[in-house]
Amino acid sequence: MTTVPEPSVTETEPTTPVTAVTTAPQTDTQNPTDNPGDAVDHIKKPLDDFFRDDVKTKEKGLYTMNITAEYLNPITGMTADGGTQNVGLGQGMCMGVIAPVGTANETEEISGTVSDLLSDGSRRWAKAMLQRMGDGRLFVTIRVHMINWMERSDKQGPFVKVLQKDGSFKLAELEETKVHIEKYKDSYADYRFEVPHEDFLAMVQMYVIPMNRPVRYFVLGDTASIVAGNAADMNVKEDLSGNTNTYVYISIGVAIVVLAAYFVISRKKSKKRNPEDIK
User: Is the omega angle on the peptide bond into residue 5 within 30 degrees of 0, that is, cis?
Assistant: First the structure.
């Protein structure tokens, strides 16, 4: 499990390939697309829709949710990594990372986590895990495919920023909970981070080694698909926040032991006779 620290330097998209390794994530400046029609069926949602009251994850426990990827910010319709020449290509790349094509003939890992296409065949969805903690916090775990083509480090990420009520994206504490690397099959890593609501929007930044630069895209879910249980078979976060009764019982037990010890010692002292009283 790794925790990604807050990076101290931002990065912009290079115009030519570079060999130097720089830090991330990039600044939040987003660029309008030159060809917004290159990619079809982009999801568009107003900011307020991401901050409605939770409906399906109110109770403590595990839930499964369908998620998808967007190269364009669903709120602004703009890219986040400076890529403006071919939005369709960017959309295909981020979809391949979050929801790759999965069939029964491919790896079990892919076919088990990627759901069917929509009726028009335009969008793929993958399964993610939501976990409501005893203290009310909500965590999501997403699976990132083709991870063997990505750099994984404190300097290059992956990084995740989560949408806030004011429209900004705040860097989240990221936990790498599972890694699966195979030479000829799908390679992936699972990442867990906290979200404010079940209808979340996250901006992911990953350094793509063959491209020699970072790429940014968005991940969001379909709240209508939320069901109880961990159908994605992802690692569960240990929850100590809800075990308040256990802590109370332990505290009472310790107090009883201390009082008993004090009573025994006091009795022993009272039984000792003063030497002057011995005749």
Answer: no
